[in-house]
Design brief:
Length: 253
């Protein structure tokens, strides 16, 4: 009697849940764009050290003094700047020797290559994609192409076409966009740079089939018990009603 009553109560409780949870999810309120505040001085070093993690990129900018070129552009021009910042994980996916073997000049060029000497908001990229190739700070042959497929923006270098994964900062005259790979121009890398082996996928091969077998077994069992559970729930519900009815009758009598 006791366990059945508890079971009944929990089923009735569960049945009452969905309606109450669906009622408490109103659509997100529409926020009107607030008037943009007056642009203030942006210190790129500070910006990159709090966002990210972009520590690897920032270290290279400081080491090559490219940071000064970029900061001067921010301070002293009306054109502004658009910087593409690879995440730390993007650098980690390269082999150490990919950048480690570059000369100091090549390294400097590579980081100058990660910025346009002009501010572009994300909405400018559609139009910008009609002006390929686009000049970078590295000048000359060091150009990038941009593509914008319904908002999916890719920055096309020769060996890597990363996408913009987020806008870190975008208020004229400074735009900083996160990208998921390091840009790799063929003028620096004559062949495609090797990628570092991914660290996680190092499981012994003989373990893999056994693991997938275990993983798939409960899954199929789960789906079949899912049907069985809903079936028995309906059954128990009828039991509950009969029980409640008889209990009420007993109380009356
Ligand atoms: C930006 O900040 C860093 C450290 O916070 C400082 O060393 C640097 O001089 C600042 N640069 C400018 C242009 O103000
Ligand atoms: C940029 O401007 C800031 C603030 O006006 C100043 O402190 C800094 O020295 C300037 N840096 C450069 C490289 O012009
Ligand atoms: C990079 O330099 C190391 C020695 O510092 C050398 O053994 C290696 O072959 C070089 N790799 C490439 C791709 O040039
Ligand atoms: C679009 O790009 C062209 C150059 O290709 C430029 O002349 C024009 O002003 C741009 N239009 C807008 C709305 O940015
Ligand atoms: C960039 O675009 C130009 C013009 O469409 C094209 O000629 C060039 O091959 C492209 N470069 C890359 C690296 O895709």
């Amino acid at each position: 009697m006791g366990p059945v009553a508890i079971f009944c109560a929990s089923i009735l409780l569960a049945l009452s849940m969905p309606s109450s949870t669906s009622a408490q999810t109103p659509p997100a309120p529409f926020l009107p764009p607030s008037p943009s505040p007056a642009p203030r001085f942006v210190n790129l070093t500070d910006l990159l050290s709090v966002a990210g993690p972009f520590d690897t990129f920032l270290d290279y900018l400081l080491q090559t003094q490219v940071i000064d070129t970029f900061q001067n552009q921010v301070n002293n021009t009306k054109q502004g700047i658009t910087v593409f910042v690879p995440k730390d994980s993007a650098f980690a996916s390269l082999k150490k020797s990919d950048l480690g073997n570059l000369t100091r000049d090549q390294l400097k060029t590579l980081f100058l290559y990660h910025a346009f000497p002009k501010y572009y908001s994300l909405s400018d990229f559609k139009n910008l994609s009609n002006s390929n190739p686009v000049s970078t700070f590295a000048g000359g042959q060091y150009t990038l192409n941009v593509t914008d497929a319904s908002g999916l923006i890719r920055i096309v270098s020769n060996w890597a076409n990363p996408k913009i994964t987020s806008s870190v900062y975008s208020t004229a005259p400074v735009a900083v966009y996160e990208i998921d790979r390091v840009l790799l121009p063929s003028a620096i890398f004559s062949t495609e740079p090797a990628l570092a082996p991914a660290p996680e996928t190092k499981t012994p091969s003989d373990l893999a089939p056994a693991q997938s077998g275990i993983a798939s077994a409960p899954k199929s069992a789960e789906s079949s018990t899912g049907d069985a559970t809903s079936y028995t729930t309906a059954f128990r519900l009828m039991d509950c009603m009969v029980l409640i009815l008889s209990a009420t009758l007993m109380l009356i009598m």
